[in-house]
Amino acid sequence: MLEQLRERCLACRACPLAETRTHVVFGSGDPGADIMFVGEAPGKNEDLTGEPFVGRAGQLLDRYLEAVGIPREKVYITNIIKCRPPQNRDPNPGEQEACIGYLREQFRIISPRIVVCLGRIAAQKMIDPNFRMTRQHGEMVKKGGVLFTATYHPAALLRNPAYKADTLQDFKRIAEAAGS
Length: 180
Ligand code: URA
Prior knowledge:
- By secondary structure, this protein is of the alpha/beta class.
- The protein has one domain (about 1-180): Uracil-DNA Glycosylase, subunit E, CATH 3.40.470.10.
- It has helices at about 1-10, 15-20, 45-50, 55-65, 95-110, 120-125, 135, 155-160, 165-180; strands at about 30, 35-40, 75-80, 115-120, 140-145, 145-150.
- β5 (about 140-145) and β6 form a beta hairpin.
- The protein is globular and about 40 Å long.
- Uracil (URA) binds near residues 40, 46, 52, 58 and 155.
């Protein structure tokens, strides 16, 4: 089912980002994952390869996963929108609306126990439209039997290393929740 959805997504022309993308970045990982990570949008390296979180931000994400003993191949990783916005600008509301159906379907098929939003854009879309990262990162919210949480986007950590210690604590809580 996930394969059929991927094929539909790869052919998507629902918004103008279809004109400028190199590859659709559908998502990757274990379709039976307990944890689903949701970022914002593909960057340059992701657009070139078709894989999520493979650039510098992705390498930092890998380090956090490793630090808390979560194998990357055991989770599923995707984004709110599947095509790169030019110059990596924030995805606009129209692009998010055109794309969010794919994420909803991925969520339904994968049926994770824990959803981890990476960054404000994903947290505001999936947890709370008024989500404030500095105040609410690491909080676990249960909705329909699924735990939702958010932490700093790894690209934000590259700009702002001061948030790294909090992020490590958030990842430890995620690993604990996944192990229990
Ligand atoms: N940033 C994101 O939000 N997603 C990616 O896939 C890469 C960088």
